[in-house]
Amino acid sequence: MTFKILTLNNISVRGLERLPRDRYEVASEIGHPDAVMLRSADVHEFAFADSVLAVARAGAGTNNIPVAKLSRRGIPVFNAPGANANAVKELVMAGLFLAARNICQAWGYVRGLQGDDDAIEEAIERGKKQFVGYELPGRTLGVVGLGAIGVEVANAALGLGMKVLGYDPQITVQRAWQLSSGVEQALSLDDLFARADMVSVHVPLADGTRGLVNEARLRLMKQGSVVLNFARAPIVDEAALLAALDRGAVSSYICDFPTKAAKDHPRVIALPHLGASTGEAEENCAMMVADTLRDFLENGNIKHCVNFPEAVLPRLVGGCRIAIANDNVPNMVGQISTCLAAEKLNIADLLNKSRGDLAYTLIDTDGDIPPSVRERIAAIPGVLSARIV
Fold first, then answer.
1. Backbone angles phi, psi at 163, to 5 degrees
2. What pairs with residue 387 in β-bridges?
3. Is-contact 350 290, C-beta < 8 A?
4. Domain 1-84+279-307: CATH class, spelled out
5. Among 19, 35, 180, 381, which is 20 to 30 Å from 299 by CA?
6. Among candidates 302, 286, 289, 294, which has minimal Cα distance to 22?
7. Is the pLDDT of residue 1 over 90?
8. How sure is the predictor about 317, in pLDDT bands with cuts at 50, 70 and 90?
C-alpha cells in the first residue's frame, strides 16, 4: 500500500527522507491524501479531504490547526514536542544577556555616532555609563512551565550560576528526571513572580494560560525585573506589561512576538519569531513528526499527539489490526468486541486509552477483518473513525 502525503509548507528534506519512496508519495499538490504535513500554514479554513487520516505539524504549537474540528472526525493531530527545545533554549539564554547587559541599546547608540575616530571614542567614553548592566550569577530566574524547553532553560540557567525557581503542576515523570535537582520548586505562580529577578514563560497557549503574565503578577515582581516570552504572545498581557515598563517596575521585555505597540518601546526587544528558526530545529522537527506519522499510518500507533491519547501496541506476526477513534463513553469496547465476535474473530491483543472526551482503541485479531466488520464498527454511535491497518 502506498500512502499519499500532502505538504502545505516546505518540510526539511531530512524529515521527508524518513518516508520511504516505495511506500510514500509526497507532494505539495496531491489528490486524496492520507495525511497532511505542515509547519506554520494556517489551516483553520482549509478543506481537509475525506481521505485524510492524520495531520502532522513539524513544530510544537498547533494554534494554526483546527484541532477540535479534526477531533470530531477522529483525526489525530501530531506535533514535535522537544525537537526545537535546544534552539529555543539558546535564544532564551541570549535574551537573558541582552537584558542584563543592555546590548541592543548600546549597539544602537554606537551605530548612531557621528564623526571621526577621535570623536567616536570621546562619545563612547561619555555615553557608556548609561548602559551599565549586571551579571547573571546569583540572580534568580523563574521558569513557568517545565516541559522540554522549560527544563532545558532551567538547567542552562543553573549552569550560568543563576538561582532557578520552577513551576509546573503538571510536570511529567520524564521531564522531572531531566530537571536538575538544583531547581527549586515554587509554591505557586504568585510565589515565583514575587521571588524572581527574571521570569521566562514556557507554556502552551490555552484558556488557562492566556494572560498568565498579568497586571497583578507584574506588581508582585521586584523593581527592575525582566520578563521573557518565547512561548506565545497572548500568554503575556501586553497592555499591562507595557504599563509596567513605563513606570519602571519592569526594566526589559524580551519576546519573539513584535506588535505595533511593543516593537518601538525603548525597553522592549522584540525578535521576529526566531525561537525555532535554526536549520537543526527544522530538521529535528521534521524527522520526529515524519517518524510519528509513519508509525500511525503503518501501525495505528499514536505518539506525540495533541488531541488523542498515546497508544502504542506492538504488532503481532500474522494478525490483523483495527484502529478505532471514539467518544470516551461506557461500553464502547464491548460493542466493538461484539462486532468482532459475531464474525468469529478472536482478539489476540487489545489496547484502549482515553484522554478527556476522546478514546482510542487498537485491536489485533488472529484472522483478517472483513471490510463489512469495519463498517459495522464505524456505524456504532460514538465511533469517530475505524481503520483496518
1. -85, 140
2. 323
3. no
4. alpha beta
5. 381
6. 294
7. no
8. confident
Count CA atoms closer than 13 A to 190's CA, side-chain side.
Answer: 3
Give the span between the Cα atoms of 80 and 355, in whole angstroms: 19
Quote the distance between the C-alpha of residue 146 and its chain's center. Answer: 12
C-alpha cell at 184: 527549586
Answer whether residue 113 shows pLDDT above 90. Answer: yes
CA distance 106 to 124: 10
Q: Provide the greatest CA pair distance for the chain.
A: 93
How do residues 204-243 score in pLDDT, each as one tens digit?
Answer: 888 999 999 999 999 999 999 999 999 999 999 999 999 9
3-state class (DSSP) for residue 235: helix
Measured from the Cβ of residue 6, the count of other Cβ atoms closer than 10 Å reads 23
pLDDT value at 61 more than 90: no
Task: Tell me yes or no: is domain 88-270 CATH 3.40.50.2300.
Answer: no
* R_g of the chain computed on alpha carbons: 25
pLDDT digits (tens, 9 = 90+) for 6-19: 999 999 999 999 99
Residues of the chain with CATH 3.40.50.720: 1-84+279-307, 88-270
Please state whether beta strands 225-229 and 198-201 pair in parallel, antiparallel, or not at all (unpaired): parallel
The cell numbers describing 346, all together, are: 478472536
Q: Where in the chain is the domain with CATH 3.30.70.260?
A: 309-389
Contact at 8 Å (CB) between 345 and 319?
A: no
DSSP string, 65-110: S-HHHHHTTT--EE--TTTTHHHHHHHHHHHHHHHHHTHHHHHHHH
Q: Is the pLDDT of residue 294 over 90?
A: yes
Rama region for 65: left / alpha / beta (φ>0; ψ in -120 to 50; rest): beta
Closest C-alpha to 142, from 96, 111, 209, 110:
96
Instruction: Report the CATH superfamily, name and number, of domain 309-389.
Output: ACT domain (3.30.70.260)
